[in-house]
């Protein structure tokens, strides 16, 4: 049973797994995955749908006479969508406690607000997303601005629609506070799933193959030094989770590409959100940004408030 942590709202027994639904294929895939995830963690599943009524009203423009009927129609459609999602979730696993809600806010606003007290927020993504336009503003906003853990459910492109349920948990380690939170979450996930953990450490986000037009090479015992850093970062967590078998990997640069490669055989990739500054892409962070677009399995983006990071 998950250890109670009263100072962390995400770990309270009442904290649900929240999943956003919108009627798309990605949403349906996320719902099925979220049901399994809630069952694994013995959590209530809360299904949410944002209507974006302000956007609907704005679209009508000056034709106010049409606003009320349109809003009523949108509400009716939303209610039906949520009802179908609740029915589907109950069929996936009738033992998982279910609640549902609908809001006039946008999906992003709703999920970000609910993330403050959620165990985790689950959202779907297309398996073919290669640009931010394809990825969707809702997913990008939620992964950038939500609290706690956000899980982007991505299918394996090699198998089309399927989401892998076997393989190790993979975690990206860089030594930051958010990385420590990601390590905590990854060990917990690996232990819950009774699978191994692959910890990948890259000392730089840069591509060291070229710099200023010149091909560069790394010399010295950098790999040994970074391997020692990785071992130190993992030591306390390995003591806490002795049954989790850990594989360590070190690369000099390009963590996004390396983690994407590892995602081809993983069931979950966990990364911290190192985003900073006022631009949307920077708020998400380059590695997480890359993974939510290109990974071959679900990606958990962990914000630093998700786990207790002090040992």
Structural summary, described in words:
The chain has 11 helices and 12 strands. The chain is an alpha/beta fold and 311 residues long. The strands form 2 sheets. Strands 3-2-1-4-5-12-11-6-7-10 form a 10-stranded mixed β-sheet, sandwiched between helices. Strands 8-9 form a two-stranded antiparallel sheet. Helix 7 links the parallel strand 6 and strand 7 (197-202). Helix 1 packs across helix 3, helix 4 (107-115) runs parallel beside helix 6 and helix 9 packs parallel to helix 11 (286-294). The chain is elongated, with a radius of gyration of 20 Å. Mean pLDDT is 81; it is low at 127-135, 205-220, 276-283 and 306-311.
Unreliable sequence segments? 127-135, 205-220, 276-283, 306-311
Strand order of the largest sheet: 3-2-1-4-5-12-11-6-7-10
Cα radius of gyration in angstroms:
20 Å
The termini sit apart by 20 Å
Estimate what percentage of residues fall within beta strands: 15-25%
**SS content category:** alpha/beta
* Shape call: elongated
Order of secondary-structure elements: EHEHHEHEHHEEHEEEHEHEHHE
Number of strands: 12
Indicate the mean pLDDT.
Answer: 81
Helix run count: 11
């Amino acid at each position: 049973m998950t250890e109670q942590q009263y100072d962390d709202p995400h770990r309270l027994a009442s904290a649900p797994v929240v999943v956003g639904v919108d009627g798309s294929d990605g949403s349906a895939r996320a719902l099925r995955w979220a049901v399994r995830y809630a069952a694994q963690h013995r959590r209530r599943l809360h299904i949410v749908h944002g209507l974006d009524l302000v956007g609907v009203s704005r679209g009508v423009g000056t034709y106010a006479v049409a606003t009320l009927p349109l809003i009523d129609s949108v509400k009716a459609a939303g209610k039906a969508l949520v009802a179908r999602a609740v029915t589907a979730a109950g069929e996936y696993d009738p033992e998982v406690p279910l609640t549902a809600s609908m809001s006039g806010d946008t999906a992003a606003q709703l999920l970000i607000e609910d993330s403050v007290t959620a165990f985790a927020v689950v959202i779907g993504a297309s398996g073919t997303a290669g640009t931010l336009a394809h990825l969707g503003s809702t997913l990008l906003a939620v992964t950038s601005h939500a609290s706690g853990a956000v899980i982007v459910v991505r299918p394996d492109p090699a198998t089309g629609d399927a989401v892998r349920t076997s393989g190790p948990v993979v975690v990206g380690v860089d030594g930051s506070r958010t990385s420590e939170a990601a390590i905590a979450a990854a060990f917990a996930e690996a232990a819950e799933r009774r699978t191994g953990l692959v910890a990948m450490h890259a000392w730089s986000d840069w591509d060291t193959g070229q710099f200023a037009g010149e091909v560069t090479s790394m010399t010295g015992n950098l790999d040994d030094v970074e391997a020692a850093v990785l071992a130190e970062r993992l030591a306390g967590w390995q003591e806490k989770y002795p049954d989790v078998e850990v594989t360590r990997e070190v690369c000099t640069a390009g963590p996004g590409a390396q983690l994407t490669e590892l995602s081809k055989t993983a069931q979950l990739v966990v990364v911290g959100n190192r985003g900073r500054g006022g631009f949307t892409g920077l708020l998400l962070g380059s590695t997480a940004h890359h993974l939510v677009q290109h990974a071959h399995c679900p990606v958990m983006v962990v914000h630093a408030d998700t786990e207790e990071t002090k040992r």
